[in-house]
Amino acid sequence: MSTPTLQGHGHSSALDAAEAGAAHLITVTLRVRRFNPEVSADAEWVDYRIPIDPKERVLDALHKVKWEIDGTLTFRRSCAHGVCGSDAMRINGRNRLACKTLIKDINPEKPITIEPIKGLTVLKDLVVDMDPFFQAYRDVMPFLITKGNEPTRERLQSAEDRARFDDTTKCILCAACTSSCPVYWNDGQYFGPAAIVNAHRFIFDSRDEGGEQRLEILNDKDGVWRCRTTFNCTDACPRGIEVTKAIAEVKRALITRRY
Amino acid sequence: MQIHKYDTVIVGAGGAGMRAAIEATKRSRTAVLTKLYPTRSHTGAAQGGMAAALANVEEDNWEWHTFDTIKGGDYLVDQDAAEILAKEAIDAVLDLEKMGLPFNRTPEGRIDQRRFGGHTRNHGEAAVRRACYAADRTGHMILQTLYQNCVKEGVEFFNEFYVLDQLLTEVDGVKRSAGVVAYELATGEIHVFQAKAVIYASGGTGKFFKVTSNAHTLTGDGQAAVYRRGLPLEDMEFFQFHPTGIWRMGILLTEGARGEGGILRNKDGERFMEKYAPVMKDLASRDVVSRAIYTEIREGRGCGPEGDHVYLDLTHLPPEQLDAKLPDITEFARTYLGIEPYTDPIPIQPTAHYAMGGIPTNVQGEVLADNTTVVPGLYAAGEVACVSVHGANRLGTNSLLDINVFGRRSGIAAAEYAHAHDFVPLPDNPAELVVSQVERLRESTGTERVADLRRELQECMDANVMVFRTEQTIKTAVEKIGELRERYRNVSVQDKGRRFNTDLLEAVELGNLLDLAEVMAVSALARKESRGGHYREDYPNRDDVNFMRHTMAYREVDEATGAESIRLDYKPVVQTRYQPMERKY
Ligand SMILES: Cc1cc2nc3c(=O)[nH]c(=O)nc-3n(C[C@H](O)[C@H](O)[C@H](O)COP(=O)(O)OP(=O)(O)OC[C@H]3O[C@@H](n4cnc5c(N)ncnc54)[C@H](O)[C@@H]3O)c2cc1C
Ligand code: SF4
Ligand code: FES
C-alpha cells in the first residue's frame, strides 16, 4: 500500500499499520470472575469466546460479551479513553483500566482473565464498593486551604512551583493503586496510596496553607508509615503517576516539616 | 419506594452540577443526584481550555469575546446571554483559581493563555490568546477542583442514582416543578425527591452518534425527562462536529493542538485550511473546519487506503512543547493508534462532540415552558441547557465557561427560589411512570436487543445527519428513527435482577436517545438553511429572513389515539448590538 507522503516526512510503518484497512478479527477467550449475590453466594469463572480486532480495547471485548452474549455481565465504564477512572479491574492479574488496555498488548493467545480490583467489597461481577476508597480520600482534606483575605486577582505561582506538584494533579481516582497495595488488602484502616497522592497534591502546592493539618492526619498510625514501598501502586497507575515517589516525599515532609 | 425532601435537588455532578451545588449548598438544603460518581463525569474529558478575556498575555477584553461568541454561533446566539458569559468569564476563571485549580502559568506567575478557534482580537483581526488552561487536562482539573470544593462544603451526593422523570404539578393554573424520580443502581429501588427547586445539569446527548467524543453515559436523560413531560427543547438540530477526533474511534484531540501550531494536511501534505479560511486557517470555527475536512475527503484528497481521513500534523513542534502542553492527547495517539506524534502525523476525522441545543432557559437558568413563560422551580445549566450562548455553533473553550457561569447562576437562583417558596404537592402516585417503564422493560419477552437498535441508530445518524445534510438524508433518518422507536416497544433485557442492573438502564438510555434523535432530525428537516453546525447541501446559505429564530420542539400526544408527534414552534433571537454579518474566517 502506498499513500503519498507528507512533505518532508516519510510514512512510518507504525502509521501504515494504524491506517491499515479492514480489521482482521481474531478469536479470544475472556475468563471473567462472575459474582451475583442475587443468584449465588459464590463467585465463579466464566469463559466467553468472542471475535475481536486486536486493536480494540478490553472494554470493547467486555461490551461485546454484554451486548451480544450475556446482558447480565456488569461493570462500570463511562469515557472509554482512560480519563474518568470508572473501569479499573484486574486484567491477567494486573490492575489496569479496561479502556486503556488493547487486546494485542496482553497476549490474546491465552485466555484473558478479568477480575474485580482487590481490597474493596465486590457487589456484583466487576463492580466493587467504592465508598471506603472515597472516604479515605475525603479524610485527607483534599482541597486548597488558605488563610487571610482572598486576593482580587489570581494568586501568583511560578511555573517551577506549579511543576512541583504537577504529577499528582493527574489522579483520576480510579483506585488501581490502592487496590494493588498488599498493606491495603490486609489492613482496612490504611488510607492507601490514592489518598496520599491527593494529599501530596496539596502539601506541595505553594498556595496551600493547610500543610501542617494534613501532615498530622497522615502521621496517624493508619497514615503514610504503613507504606512498605512495594511499588505495586506505581506499576498500576494508568496515569503514570510516580505514586511511590509521592508517598516518599510526604514521608520526608513529615520528618523535615519542609515542603 | 422512598420519599426524600430537599430544598434544592441538582441532577448531575459534572462541572455545571457541582458549580451549582457549591452555591446551592451554602444557601439551602441541597441534594445532588448523579448517575456517575462525580469525578467520572465527562467534564473531566475536556482538554483544551476555558475562555476568559483576562488579558494576561496580550490585549483582550470581554466585548471582543462577546462578539466572537456571537459570530461563532452564526448569529443565532442570544446576545444578552453572550454578554453575560463573556463578562462573568473573568471572575469564573479567578474563582476556580482561588478554589485551587492548578492553571499553567506565565513567567510572571499569572494564569497562562493560549489560542483557540474563533477567538480573535478586535472583531476578527487575528487570533488572540484567551483560553486559560492546565496542559490538555483543563476539564479534569475543573472537575477535580469542583469536587474538592464540594467535599469542603459538605455537599450531599446520591451517587449512582439515575433520574428518570420530572414531576410537575399544576397549582393556580401554572405548572410547577414538584421534584424528580430516581432509580438507585445498587438496589433497583425507586426514590422520589420532592424539592422546591430542581436544577438539571445532566450533560449532553452525543451517544446517538457512532463516531463521538462523548462518553457512553451521555444519553440525554435530562432533556428526555422534561421533553416527555411536555416541555420544549430548543435548537436540537444544532450539533457540533469537532474536526479532530481520532479516526474511527472519535476520541478527541483538542483544538489546543492547533492552537499550539498543529496543522491539518491532506494526502498531498497540503495545508488545505488556507483555501477555506485564509486568515484563521486551521483555527477557523469548528463547523468550517469539519466541512473543509469532508470536502477534502469527498474530492479524493483524504489519507489512508480508503481515503477517509486527514492528518493532524504536530511533527514540526518541538517534543518538549508537546510534552508540556499536550501530554494527554499525544499519549492517546500512542495508546490507541500505536503511532508517535513526534514523528508521525495523526489520522483524524470529525467527531460528534457537543449539543448546542437543549432545555431552553433564560439567563438565570430558569426553564421555559414556551417562548416566554418560566416553569417555577425548574432550572437547567451546562450542556443539557440552551441559554442560548452557543447559537448554531459553540466556540471551543466556551462550554467549560458556560458550565461555570450558568452553573453558578442557576445554583444561586434555585436556592433563593427555594427560600422564598414552599413545596409544591407531589402528584398522586408520583413514581408511576418510572415504575411502569422499568417493570415493562424487566418483564418484556420481546425479541429486540438494545445493542442492535442502538447500533442501527448510531449508524443512521452518522450517515444522515452529521456534517452534511440534505432533505433526502434527513428524511431517511426520520423514517429510520420511527422504525427503531417502533421496534423499541419490543425490546427486552436479559438481566432481570435488582442489583446493579446496567442492562436495564442501557435500555432506558436507548429510549432517551431515540426520542432525542427524532427531535433532532425533525428540527433539522424544517430548517431549510445552513447555519453553523447545521449544514444543508440543498440550502447552502444562511437565511436570516426566514430562519433567524430558535426552534422550539414540543412532544404532543393525541388524546384520542395516544399517537405521539412533534410540534415545532419558533422563538425570536435576542439581538442587542451586533447586526448579523456574513461569517468569514
Ligand atoms: C472530549 C471533550 C473535550 C472537551 N473539551 C472542551 C474544552 O477544552 N473546552 C470547553 O469549553 N469545552 C470542552 N468540551 C465540552 C465540555 O467539556 C462539556 O460540554 C461540559 O463539560 C459539560 O458539562 P456538564 O456539567 O454540562 O455535563 P457533564 O460533565 O457531562 O456531567 C453530566 C452529569 O450528569 C449526570 N447525569 C447524567 N444523566 C443523569 C441522570 N439520568 N440522572 C442523574 N445524573 C445524571 C452524570 O452523572 C454527570 O455527573 C469538551 C467535551 C468533550 C467531550
Ligand atoms: S494515583 Fe493513579 S492509580 Fe491511584 S487512583 Fe490516582 S490515577 Fe488511579
Ligand atoms: S471508562 Fe473512563 S477510564 Fe475507562
UniProtKB/TrEMBL annotation, chain A:
Catalyzed chemical reaction(s): a menaquinone + succinate = a menaquinol + fumarate
Matches recorded under InterPro entries: 2Fe-2S_ferredoxin-like_sf, 2Fe-2S_ferredoxin-type, 4Fe4S_Fe-S-bd, 4Fe4S_Fe_S_CS, Beta-grasp_dom_sf, Helical_ferredxn, SDH/FRD_Iron-Sulfur, Succ_DH/fum_Rdtase_Fe-S
Record note on cofactor: Binds 1 [3Fe-4S] cluster. Binds 1 [2Fe-2S] cluster.
Top-rank taxon: Bacteria
Domain 4Fe-4S ferredoxin-type stretches: 161-183
Domain (2Fe-2S ferredoxin-type): residue spans on this chain: 37-120
The protein's required cofactors: [3Fe-4S] cluster; [2Fe-2S] cluster; [4Fe-4S] cluster
Alphabetic keyword roster: 2Fe-2S, 3Fe-4S, 4Fe-4S, Iron, Iron-sulfur, Metal-binding, Oxidoreductase, Tricarboxylic acid cycle
Metabolic or biological pathway: Carbohydrate metabolism; tricarboxylic acid cycle
E.C. number(s) listed in UniProt: 1.3.5.1
Family according to the record: Belongs to the succinate dehydrogenase/fumarate reductase iron-sulfur protein family.
Record protein name field: Fumarate reductase iron-sulfur subunit
Automatic annotation (TrEMBL), chain B:
Annotated Fumarate reductase/succinate dehydrogenase flavoprotein-like C-terminal domain residues: 454-585
Domain FAD-dependent oxidoreductase 2 FAD-binding: 7-400
Cofactor(s) it depends on: FAD
Gene Ontology MF terms in the entry: oxidoreductase activity
PROSITE patterns: FRD_SDH_FAD_BINDING (PS00504)
UniProt cross-references to InterPro entries, sorted A to Z: FAD-dep_OxRdtase_2_FAD-bd (IPR003953), FAD/NAD-bd_sf (IPR036188), FRD_SDH_FAD_BS (IPR003952), Fum_R/Succ_DH_flav-like_C_sf (IPR037099), Fum_Rdtase/Succ_DH_flav-like_C (IPR015939), SdhA/FrdA/AprA (IPR030664), Succ_DH/fumarate_Rdtase_cat_sf (IPR027477), Succ_DH_flav_su_fwd (IPR011281)
EC number annotated for this UniProt entry: 1.3.5.1
Metabolic or biological pathway: Carbohydrate metabolism; tricarboxylic acid cycle; fumarate from succinate (bacterial route): step 1/1
Record Gene3D superfamilies: FAD/NAD(P)-binding domain, Fumarate reductase/succinate dehydrogenase flavoprotein-like, C-terminal domain, succinate dehydrogenase protein domain, Succinate dehydrogenase/fumarate reductase flavoprotein, catalytic domain
The entry's keywords: Electron transport, FAD, Flavoprotein, Membrane, Oxidoreductase, Transport, Tricarboxylic acid cycle
Subcellular location: Membrane
Catalytic activity field: a quinone + succinate = fumarate + a quinol
Topology within the bilayer: Peripheral membrane protein
Highest taxon in the source lineage: Bacteria
NCBIfam families membership: sdhA_forward, sdhA_frdA_Gneg
Family designation: Belongs to the FAD-dependent oxidoreductase 2 family. FRD/SDH subfamily.
Protein name stated in the entry: Succinate dehydrogenase flavoprotein subunit
